[in-house]
């Protein structure tokens, strides 16, 4: 295949950029380019200066004779390798949120909570420079980590992104007038507790998207949406991704797959004064007993109860230091 005579300036790798090195076995290493630095592996060294000033897509050979492909990381690569204080929304789910939630250029989007910033990045890319994303986060340390990761990804903090530390139910009315929000994305333990504030902020035809981890959370949110009378019939789903091994005639599904990560629920805001159509249901048997209902809805929903892992203590402080470190490298280069 013929090569272009000139390399576009945007393709040239510069100090301060994150790159991904991939070896022949598919193992990936993400580093930040810095003049004079050296990348170490147990099979040899690569000087950063061998990469700086050259285009992505090249192959470099380390001192041990091992070849590495050089590319800028995709969104998925960045998200899965960035510092995390809380679990991230996986790319397979953020892609569905953006597409099925119709997160479009120019939209005003509210997000709660921000976690480590993975979903915020996807939302910001979807709304574009004319849109706006406002994130709400209960924990200040998570907001700080997300701010660092977002600034790292966009080469600076986006002007159309803001984060408020506090409870969405209390802070949302302070930041947005009724009917001025296009989309609300809820990645929180108890999204059913904020539906009143969300329905007030959403414009007619707007959408609420909830991302929850467990079946009880899914059930409680869906029933709360129906009981509110403010939204269309909610649509609930999950996604699973399975790769394929393709090598000549040896074509088969991979033994491993990305299965359940979370449930998505999407519902549209009805116009004020308009009731949603009732879903036709088949007659059911005896109603659930009070004991069953209490077992399903009782008890506090906590991160520990649903099995969510969150960085704490020493690890959390380390993550806070690492988030946004690429920008520090760029400042040093200047």
Number of domains as seen in the coordinates: 2
CATH second-level architecture of the largest domain:
3-Layer(aba) Sandwich
The CATH topology label of the largest domain is: Rossmann fold
Radius of gyration equals 23 Å
Distance between the termini: 38 Å
Structural class designation: alpha/beta
User: What percentage of amino acids are in beta strands?
Assistant: 25-35%
CATH superfamily of the largest domain: Vaccinia Virus protein VP39
Helix content: 25-40%
| Main sheet makeup | 7 strands, mixed
Q: How many beta strands in the DSSP annotation?
A: 15
CATH class call of the largest domain = Alpha Beta
Secondary structure tally, helices = 10
Q: In order across it, which strands form the biggest sheet?
A: 9-8-7-10-11-15-12
SSE topology string: EEEEEEHHEHEHEHEHEHEEEEHHH
Shape annotation: globular
Pfam families: GCD14 (PF08704), TrmI-like_N (PF14801)
Family: Belongs to the class I-like SAM-binding methyltransferase superfamily. TRM61 family.
Catalytic activity: adenosine(58) in tRNA + S-adenosyl-L-methionine = N(1)-methyladenosine(58) in tRNA + S-adenosyl-L-homocysteine + H(+)
InterPro entries: SAM-dependent_MTases_sf, TRM61_C, tRNA_MeTrfase_Gcd14
Describe the protein in words:
This protein has 334 residues and is an alpha/beta fold. It has two domains: 12-73, Vcp-like ATPase, Chain A, domain 2 (Roll); 78-274, Vaccinia Virus protein VP39 (Rossmann fold), CATH 3.40.50.150. It contains ten helices and 15 strands. The protein has helices spanning 75-81, 91-100, 118-127, 140-154, 168-175, 195-201, 215-228, 290-297, 313-322, 325-333, and strands at 18-22, 28-32, 38-41, 44-47, 59-61, 67-71, 108-112, 132-137, 161-165, 181-186, 202-212, 235-237, 241-247, 250-258, 263-268. Strand 3 and strand 4 form a beta hairpin. The protein is globular and about 70 Å long. The relative contact order is 0.12.
